[in-house]
């Protein structure tokens, strides 16, 4: 499958000033930009910056960023699922995972996450993919947000729905391990019936196990 990436950009006015939301950005662009020290959800900032550069260089990899002048203050990643996850077992070329989304605390509540997702979906080629995200409550910043697990889940669902993702049932053990965890997905309008059926099989791999 040939992966095409169409760059899009929009300006977002926030209480702290304007942000540029753009992407998919290239590795060269990412190398030139600073990476805010508050982006610590997944790794130390320097290592996460390098991870984004690597993802952007993958044929299917997509990085959408929010930047304040020359500093990245938020991002979302799309790439093939981790080989160790069930979602990679179907070896589907048209299934991508929203692997990470992060915005620094100072810009939370300013719809930055929603705009990152919306800009990602401005590319018509995204209609050729099934986009999934697996949400686990232990990845959420409950302490920093001041929200309980259920309010945070509602917030995540609202944000993901801005990118067209909706809740899907699954028997995945990790997702089923806590009722706040969930699978969300967006099935592009150009995705084949065969791929949708494969996705359904991945969602329910234990249906015949007793």
UniProtKB/TrEMBL annotation:
GO terms for molecular function: acetoin dehydrogenase (NAD+) activity; acyltransferase activity, transferring groups other than amino-acyl groups. GO terms for biological process: acetoin catabolic process. Keywords: Transferase. Residues 19-172 form the N-acetyltransferase domain. Transmembrane segments: none annotated. It comes from the Bacteria. This is N-acetyltransferase. It comes from Pradoshia eiseniae.
């Amino acid at each position: 499958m040939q992966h095409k990436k169409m760059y899009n950009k929009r300006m977002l006015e926030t209480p702290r000033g304007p942000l540029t939301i753009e992407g998919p950005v290239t590795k060269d662009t990412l190398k030139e930009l600073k990476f805010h020290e508050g982006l610590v959800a997944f790794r130390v900032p320097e290592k996460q910056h390098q991870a984004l550069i690597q993802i952007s260089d993958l044929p299917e990899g997509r990085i959408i960023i929010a930047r304040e002048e020359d500093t990245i203050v938020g991002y979302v990643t799309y790439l093939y699922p981790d080989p160790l996850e069930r979602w990679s077992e179907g070896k589907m070329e048209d299934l991508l995972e929203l692997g990470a989304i992060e915005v620094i605390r100072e810009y939370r509540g300013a719809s930055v996450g929603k705009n990152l997702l919306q800009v990602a979906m401005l590319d018509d080629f995204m209609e050729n993919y099934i986009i999934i995200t697996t949400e686990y409550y232990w990845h959420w910043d409950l302490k920093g947000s001041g929200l309980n697990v259920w309010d945070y889940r509602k917030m995540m669902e609202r944000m993901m729905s801005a990118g067209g993702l909706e809740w899907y049932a699954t028997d995945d053990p990790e997702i089923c391990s806590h009722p706040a965890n969930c699978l969300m997905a967006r099935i592009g309008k150009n995705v084949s019936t065969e791929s949708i059926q494969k996705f359904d099989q991945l969602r329910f791999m234990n249906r015949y196990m007793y």
